[in-house]
Amino acid sequence: MKIEKNVEPIKSNEFLKELSFCRNDTNSYLRKLLPQENNEVLYDAINYAIFSGGKRFRAFLVIQAAKLFEIPKIRALQAASAIETTHTYSLVHDDLPSMDNDDIRRGKPTVHIKWDEATAVLVGDALQAFAYQILSDKKTHPNSEVRLHLIKTLSEASGHNGMVLGQSKDLEAEKNVKSPQLKDIVNLQKLKTGALFRWSLGSASILAEEKNDHLKIYAEAIGLAFQIKDDLLDHEGTTEKIGKKVGKDSQAGKATLVSILGVENAKKRCLELCDEACESLNLFGKKSEMLKTAARFTIERGF
Description:
Layout (H helix, E strand, L loop, with lengths): L11 H22 L7 H10 L6 H12 L4 H22 L9 E2 L2 E2 L1 H4 L2 H20 L7 H15 L4 H13 L6 H11 L1 H14 L5 H24 L2 H4 L5 H4 L5 H5 L1 H18 L8 H12 L3
Antiparallel strand pairs: 1-2
Helix pairs in contact: 1-3, 1-4, 2-6, 3-4, 3-10, 4-6, 4-10, 7-10, 8-9, 10-11, 11-15, 11-16, 15-16
């Protein structure tokens, strides 16, 4: 593949418009997929959790990566929907009193506050299972081997070798009196946050039936940058502006990337990771500019 140079960068307003288009497309598609029957508490709670806001950034990554390989839109939307139901399930469970104990998510009451803990557990269970149901559908890809590959890699990314292990390590860190090393926190975040980012980008290669390590490099870089930025927002932001409680980690005395690196070094590391992500996509030329802008958005998003 030929590298294209001197490509005109996409302006931020164009990126935000595209992000909004992808969010709206994903939300419309999810509304067609999710159960809508009235008078079912579970269905009401599922829809509340899914449509309570959010930028659909992981879905955006799936859709934009799919464009690099000219993958049909419906296949990209199937994968985008699967990653969003998986991500939402993780948030619902993470908010539980036995986990992170949050009562606000995106400026609204969390599921266990609006309903109860049992409903929140069931909502998470249902959304996790539904992700695999979506990927198993022939709309995702006509080749069953491709569908199985998507299911296998998502289960790995979200399970005991991925996101769930990261959450377990995060909970352990709250109880550990011994201060973790930087490499320990980086590894934790690669699991808890980065694993789903890697799947979001990697799904395009699977759908295209083409191996591509450049997207993996991009995903690793923006996944870590995304978490550092989250830590910075938690350190410097307010509940009103962020839409969830802030400062919980510092109050609990838990080490974060910001507490170890310091604010200025954390911001510097974000910039370095953004550069790494952008450089990894040079092979795709102009087609990759939207994803490069997404990397910049990751570290520039504010309050």
